[in-house]
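Is this the right way to post structure tokens for a design question? Let me know if I should format differently. Anyway, here goes:
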């Protein structure tokens, strides 16, 4: 952190400039190719991302659970190093996509405009989008279907610190991410081992010699009932 503080003091003595999202990104919604056209979904080569991809593979994606053919595209695939962010349904999730791709209609693509490609480290944008996630959750349209107010969405502000500062922030956050992943793996392994240990002792401690008398459940239970459902009429009458 001391190096970052030095860089900020040296390179940003008067603070950091901010830009509206709409100033630095081209935005476009993803879409789902027609399921009625088999050739769109057979022998696919273009990754088609859904929320399941983030849940399964994390927030930096280079491969998808499902692919579509080039014929399924409306024009070109979305460029690599784009951000996808959920602006409807499961709002508050985003990922960095490092390959040319397509995502479904739940996602909005953020694609850096040419004049800003040399001014941003895409990994810095990826990390800053955690704040955009929070902003999206606070800017919802009122209605039955959850969606982000896109007029407010494009007014979200991104900082534009010098590249040296961006890269140092990315380095720090990458280190924390790696440490967190290692700790999570260790804890998961420990939890799995403890679960197996518990099951072993549970099964052995509850295993009795044949000399120990046993009784039938019906002999020691006062009553035994099967659960039952509630009818629609009963629910209506509550």
């Amino acid at each position: 952190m001391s190096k970052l503080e030095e860089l900020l003091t040296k390179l940003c003595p008067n603070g950091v400039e901010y830009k509206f999202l709409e100033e630095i990104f081209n935005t476009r919604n993803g879409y789902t190719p027609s399921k009625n056209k088999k050739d769109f979904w057979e022998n696919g080569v273009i990754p088609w991302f859904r929320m399941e991809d983030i849940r399964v593979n994390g927030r930096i994606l280079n491969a998808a659970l499902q692919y579509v053919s080039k014929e399924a595209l409306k024009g070109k695939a979305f460029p690599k190093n784009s951000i996808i962010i959920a602006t409807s349904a499961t709002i508050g999730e985003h990922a960095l996509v490092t390959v040319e791709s397509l995502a479904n209609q739940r996602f909005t693509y953020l694609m850096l405009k040419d004049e800003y490609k040399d001014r941003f480290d895409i990994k810095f944008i990826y990390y800053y989008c955690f704040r955009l996630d929070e902003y999206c959750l606070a800017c919802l349209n009122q209605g039955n279907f959850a969606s982000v107010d896109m007029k407010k969405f494009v007014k979200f502000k991104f900082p534009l610190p010098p590249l040296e500062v961006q890269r140092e922030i990315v380095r720090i956050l990458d280190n924390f991410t790696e440490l967190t992943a290692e700790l999570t793996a260790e804890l998961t392994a420990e939890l799995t081992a403890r679960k197996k240990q518990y099951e072993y002792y549970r099964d052995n401690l509850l295993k009795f010699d044949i000399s120990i008398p046993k009784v039938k459940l019906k002999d020691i239970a006062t009553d035994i009932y099967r659960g039952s459902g509630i009818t629609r009429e009963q629910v209506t009458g509550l």
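Format looks fine. Someone answered above. Worth noting: The longest strand covers residues 107-112. Residues 163-205 form the longest helix (43 residues).
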